Amino acid sequence: MTEATNRKSAGGKHTTAGQARDKAGDRWLPIADGAMDAVSKVRTDVQKRTKMRPDLSVVVAAMLQHASTSPDVADAVARHAFDVYTKALSNREPGVTPEPEPAATT
What we know:
Elements: H1 33-50, H2 56-68, H3 73-91
């Protein structure tokens, strides 16, 4: 699990990544290392261009909004999901149902 899935809510109870929210109402989601690397590269490029270092949440939000306007985003997500679940099924032990592991996007 990533750091995001281990956070506690304001009440101190453990929550899942989809449920965890900070005071601003933002959600905390797990992110695969490969995806985080892509975010970091974009952040570094923006920092070089603007001479300021944007917050990671700003970079991720901008990337998601931009990707959502791409006409083939649903196809890319479907391919990625298929790859993630295929990998998880090929790695599972007999009789055990694994949680899908996040994979880097291509």
